[in-house]
Predict the 3D structure of the following.
Amino acid sequence: MGREKVVGILGGMGPYATIDMFRRIVDLTPARKDWEHLRIIVDNHPKIPSRSRAILYGETSPAPMMIETAANLARAGADFIVIPCNTAHHFLDEVKQGSPIPIVSIIEETRDYVMQRMPKVRCVGLLAGTVTASGTLYQDAFADRGVSVIAPAGDEQDRVEEVKEAIKLGDTGADVRATLIAAASKLAAAGAEALIIGCTELSIIAAQDDFPVPIYDSNDILAQAAVDTALGRR
């Protein structure tokens, strides 16, 4: 095996999700001593323009600043990049074209992980922020495999969005968890055979024991992909 690759985290979208990604990579690394851990370079850049506002209202695109941050990570020594923000992946094609190093897609990694473990699945539920839940990132990725993706609708999705915003403010209490669990239960009742936690804030509070069907956490899956890439397992 060649030298370990250096992980770059293009973060700040938001900061808590960035911290969570760093922690998960460390937790998933097979290390017993400090020096056996991976080198991880983090650019926590919360000044990147809002992904949601760019999509919903045509405001400033985050892509140029994401590309600039990717270049910063490359100059600092990163070999590849992970982005712990699902909504930012709406701009991934453009950012990939401008990035000097590869970017591992949270969407593709999550789809592949689910399909490997549930090859006969035909319907998955998506718990995510409103832009991702109502968009086509996961829907298009799974459509290629003949799988439908359903998400909460109307007021239920509004409550999930409120959970996401609460977590951004540091609230991970019982009421926040209960709201997310209620939305998950409704998706399972509507036919979801598994649930994707498609928001890196929601993943901070998601625990399998709370959910009625298997859950697949996009942040955890991306963290494992980062470890596997860095260690040359793929």
Q: What stands out?
A: Residues 174-189 form the longest helix (16 residues). The two ends are 11 Å apart (CA to CA).
